[in-house]
Amino acid sequence: MTLTTTDVLIIGAGAAGLMCAATAGYRGRSVTVVDMGKKPGRKILISGGGRCNFTNENAAAENFLCLNPHFVKSALKRYSAQDFIELVDRHGLNYHHKTLGQLFCDNSAQDIVDILMTECDWAGVDIHLRNEVLDISQHSDGSYLVKTTEQQYQCQSLVIASGGLTMPKLGASPIGYKIAEQFGLKVLPTTAALVPLTLHDHDKQRFDGLSGISIFTEITSEDGTCFKENILFTHRGLSGPAILQISSFWQAGQSININLLPEQCLIETIAQWRIDHKQKSIKNQLSTILPKRFIEMLADNNHIPDKAINQLSNQEVSTLSDFIHAWSIKPNGTEGYRTAEVTLGGVDTNELSSKTFEAKKASGLFFIGEVIDVTGWLGGYNFQFAWSSGIACGQAV
Q1: Which residue in 190, 84, 101 sits closest to 93, CA to CA?
Q2: Where are the CATH 3.50.50.60 domain residues in the chain?
Q3: How many CB atoms lie within 10 A of CB 233?
Q4: d(CA 347, CA 367)
Q5: Residues 6+ positions from 166 with CB-CB distance below 8 Å
Q6: CATH hierarchy code of domain 3-192+343-394
Q7: Within the chain, which residue ranges are assigned CATH 2.40.30.10?
């Protein structure tokens, strides 16, 4: 089997791996990237509905879940969202702003992959696809020997940018965690995050017919984390930005609290209706501010009195307000890694340098991107961490 010697070998041709490769290549290092997939940047290509939410202008440490909340500060400070925006501007990328600081490609996520591949080409990086890693060992001189289905590689710096367990159809695997454990690094339990929630059968039956309905809400988990965005009813349960966000904080057996009217006070609204629409039914009037099918479901389940507005007692108004502003529901689970956007947990950041991402127990071994215990909010944060960690590591290998 052919032996190739390279300064830096990177496992994973995703966002973090390609960013690291170009950065190291520009420093004059010989860099090789191996990936078992047919294409580079496969998760980039399907992200953001095919338009890739490639960063968030507001990216800061508080937008990430990590057992060590200070870990992400160094990388984000040294390579910010603005730095990545300057990179895509130099390549002439056409992009647009959406709500909450999100940036998307105007045309296609392929544009981001093309930029990364161009940078790697300019930096002299070799990329070998359809090349699965079979075995890794370390020589007495500190170098690493990596055997793949194609050949063997010897390197001084080995970078693991293999991603998490999300979207197994795209080739996701636990290889990064296995490598970490092989070299004595702690790996925290993993679970699907930024993922739709499923419902118990009795709730699925209640919500039958609501699929496709979207409502702007404020949603709160049992630990007090709160997001104000849309929820979406699906055939299997609940999705939409608010649900994906809260899924990273939800744990099995817990309830979530949903304020269905976060921008108004229902008690005050009904007080005005008692003046303007007192003869109308409360159900029909609620249908003017919330989706009709949803209100009909609530009425069918006796959550809304079958009365005219002027017949409601103060207690009925108070009870209805409490329900609408604090609708509590207990999910059955999540849709899992199949549809999740990221993996929560992974290589313990306490095992790594926050400046270089090198393993403290294994000189020359680095972990970047989703494989480590850093999980961003929905909205471009995870890509920004991929760029930031890739740059930090690329400057050190």
Answers
A1: 84
A2: 3-192+343-394
A3: 24
A4: 8
A5: 43, 172, 192, 337, 340, 341, 342, 343, 370
A6: 3.50.50.60
A7: 196-335
Q: Edge to edge, what strands does the sheet with 53-56 contain?
A: 53-56, 102-105, 95-97
Domain 196-335 falls under CATH 2.40.50.140: no
**Selection from 298, 209, 196, 198 nearest residue 243 by Cα:** 196
**pLDDT tens digits, residue range 81-109?**
999 999 999 999 999 999 899 999 999 99
> What pLDDT, in 10s, does the model give residues 222-272?
999 999 999 999 999 999 999 999 999 999 999 999 999 999 999 999 999
Total residue length of the chain = 397
